[in-house]
Amino acid sequence: MAGLQKAKSEETHRRVLEAAISAVEAGGLDAVNIRKIAAEAGYSVGSVYKHFGDQDELLLAVNSVTLGRIREKMSEAIDQADDPVVQMKVLAQTYLDFARANRNLWTTLFAHQLPEDKAVPEEHIQENISLLEFIAVPLKALNPDLEDNFLAARTRTCFAAVHGLVTISLEARFVGLSGEEIDREMMYLVERLSGR
């Protein structure tokens, strides 16, 4: 009996999360409405709150799925290259491609902010750090003498530079780039960041 209840609970959790992911994919952060997601998943609002304490918790779960998808793409991409500079280029291009193809999920990942009185769960922090490790590995290969604290700072700098270029370009800011320009300039940026 306990096994059946657990299976039903896991199914409810999965269906609610899938409905929330679909809502974000279709309409971004503003499309997340507990009542609509409950109806889409086929459950009551109370069932949603039984699995996700509030809308922030549900959005953190959606963002965890997004981070997992990015991690999967980066893992597949980096396996195709041995040279550390090529690895960094591949990672940057993969990040850009993911943002282009999953615009609403990617935007929600950065647009969702927890209230000041809520701490970011440690698990979510670790999910973010695991993505940065993809960058740290080729950076360390290029700079073997770099101490860990400097490597951590350099890794974040590299991510911030790539993320900034992706953000201003996809948001069509006046200084942003488009089409083949962004792909070309992304490679230029990575070459400079890697010291090549």
UniProtKB/TrEMBL annotation:
Domain of life: Bacteria
Keyword Electron transport: no
SUPFAM superfamilies: Homeodomain-like, Tetracyclin repressor-like, C-terminal domain
Gene3D superfamilies: Tetracycline Repressor, domain 2 (1.10.357.10)
Pfam families: TetR_C_33, TetR_N
Signal peptide location: none
Ranges annotated as spanning the membrane: none
Keyword Zinc-finger: no
Ranges annotated as DNA-binding: 33-52
Cited InterPro entries: Homeodomain-like_sf, HTH-type_TetR-like_transc_reg, HTH_TetR, MT1864/Rv1816-like_C, Tet_transcr_reg_TetR-rel_C_sf
Keyword terms: DNA-binding, Transcription, Transcription regulation
Domain HTH tetR-type: residue ranges: 10-70
Name of the molecule in the record: TetR/AcrR family transcriptional regulator
